[in-house]
Amino acid sequence: MRGRWLLAPTVLMTSFAFVSAYSQQQKPLVDTVSARLASAKNVLVTRARGSNIPYDVIKSTLDGWGRFTIVESLDQADLVVQVATTGDNSLSVSSSSKNLASDDDRSTRTSKDFSASDITMTVYDAKSKRVLWIASETAKFAVKEKARENNLVEAAERLTSKFHDRLEPPPQKNTN
């Protein structure tokens, strides 16, 4: 019975030693994320949902950056960049008309739904599926289709600029 009392403190002290050594070996999460993003060479760009416009802009911008090689399959990729677009803040416009010149009860109604779009860019490790970076931008509201498309392009460009600045921060300005 006496041996059991001596064994318990020894096991406890050994456990603390292992935990202490293990925690000293662990790198901070931020360092491992930064290292993983910095070491990546091959990127798969996917569209989860929504418009093709932000997907095309982000894919072509990453390709033009020269830091990454765009690949077409998951097994070739170091990182996966997932682009998703949703529409929110809906505004519905409708009109109706009735022929007042006749006693006819026919009426016509037209409606169109306009909505602002949120674009989300998620970057995750292709092997572990761990999210390494995520950001969203809202495209400005526009009634005309061409203006909506331009706003989607601008929002997608802002997202890729944020990602670029995360990997390659702009130089600090001197205040002297």
Describe what this molecule looks like in 3D.
Helix 3 runs parallel beside helix 4. The protein contains four helices and five strands; from the N terminus they run ααβαββββα. With 176 residues, it is of the alpha/beta class. Strand 3 and strand 4 form a beta hairpin. A five-stranded mixed sheet has the order 2-1-3-4-5. The chain has a domain of 118 residues: Rossmann fold (3-Layer(aba) Sandwich), CATH 3.40.50. The chain starts with a helix and ends in a 9-residue tail after the last helix. 16% of the residues are buried.
Q: Gyration radius, to the nearest Å? A: 27 Å
Low-confidence region ranges: 11-19, 88-92
SSE-based structural type: alpha/beta
SSE arrangement, N to C: HHEHEEEEH
Strands, total number: 5
Global outline: globular
- Mean pLDDT across all residues, rounded? 80
Which strand order does the major sheet show? 2-1-3-4-5
Q: So what's the CATH class of one domain?
A: Alpha Beta
CATH architecture of one domain: 3-Layer(aba) Sandwich
Summarize the structure.
With 176 residues, the protein is of the alpha/beta class. Helix content is 41%, strand content 32%. Strand 3 (79-98) and strand 4 form a beta hairpin.
